[in-house]
Write a sequence for this structure.
């Protein structure tokens, strides 16, 4: 069964006829490092549909974080364009702040403020947007429920496990109803069992919140389990090697990983990764 397709085929467009929400076009990134130029990304083209879940995989150093940081408005591309809902997120090396109002970011480290309670951490983006205390409390309670932290509103980050801290970070990113959620190895530091649980929960959060997700991971299994499409980058410079649709039914369970279809998709991706 051949399921992987070349980058420039129809698979670089969203699956299922959904409308485009994020468009990456001809993106290049060259870092000026002390040891010379590092060509991190070359001619990246990708169209991501509304509500789609995209996993970004590839060897260490292939440019996954660079691409995510460009999408997140943290790093300008050297050339090319990125648009969110048709609006350019970079204009001549300058960030277009308006385009980022509906973005949520989650990184490997939860980055919670230790002196704030879970509820205050979750509601911080709302406070910064001028939302009143009562509405913030209500939203934090709702989000604690959604991410599986009910009753922990008044706990402090030091009282939470690593998985619980990541749930709080996800809740914080969801607090202002982002339409786009960018996640850089959010579960990379968690043990295998907690990671499985977080993957199941992220799947249901994605289904409920309806946000478009771009998720960077080193784990092919995790990438396939979560994604509608898996984007594989190859290094030096980072290019899209393949875009693989994952036509497995949702909701997916841990049983899904034992299916022949799942294992075949993983096998093909591992083979491509080995080929470099
Ligand atoms: N600030 C920087 N200055 C110079 N080179 C950089 C910088 N950041 C990243 N690079 C280089 O760009 C390339 C891509 O890095 P990036 O962190 O995007 O890869 P990655 O796929 O996310 O790696 P990993 O899987 O190890 O996190 C690498 O060769 C890296 O050394």
């Amino acid at each position: 069964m051949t399921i992987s397709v070349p980058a420039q085929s129809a698979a670089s467009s969203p699956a299922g006829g959904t409308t485009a929400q994020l468009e990456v076009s001809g993106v290049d990134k060259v870092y000026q490092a002390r040891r010379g130029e590092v060509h991190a990304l070359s001619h990246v083209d990708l169209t991501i549909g509304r509500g789609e879940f995209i996993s970004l995989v590839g060897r260490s150093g292939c440019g996954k974080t660079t691409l995510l940081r460009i999408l997140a408005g943290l790093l300008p591309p050297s050339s090319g364009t990125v648009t969110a809902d048709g609006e350019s997120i970079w204009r001549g090396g300058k960030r277009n702040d308006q385009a980022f109002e509906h973005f949520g970011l989650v990184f490997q480290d939860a980055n919670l403020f230790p002196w704030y309670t879970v509820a205050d951490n979750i509601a911080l983006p709302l406070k910064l947007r001028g939302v009143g205390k009562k509405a913030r409390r209500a939203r934090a309670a709702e989000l604690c429920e959604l991410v599986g932290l009910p009753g922990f509103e008044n706990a402090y980050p030091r009282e939470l496990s690593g998985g619980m801290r990541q749930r709080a970070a996800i809740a914080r990113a969801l607090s202002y109803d982002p339409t786009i959620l960018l996640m850089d190895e959010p579960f990379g530091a968690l043990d295998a069992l907690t990671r499985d649980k977080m993957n199941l929960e992220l799947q249901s959060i994605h289904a409920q919140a309806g946000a478009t997700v771009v998720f960077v991971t080193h784990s092919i299994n995790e990438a396939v389990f979560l994604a509608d499409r898996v984007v594989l980058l190859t290094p030096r410079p980072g290019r899209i090697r393949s875009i693989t649709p994952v036509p497995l039914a949702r909701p997916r369970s841990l049983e899904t990983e034992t299916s022949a279809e799942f294992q075949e998709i993983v096998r093909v991706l591992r083979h491509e990764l080995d080929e470099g």
About this structure: Residues 70 and 235 are 17 Å apart (CA to CA). The pocket of adenosine-5'-triphosphate is lined by residues 31, 33, 38, 40, 58, 60-66 (CB under 6 Å). Confidence is low (pLDDT under 50) at residues 1-10. The longest helix spans residues 192-209.
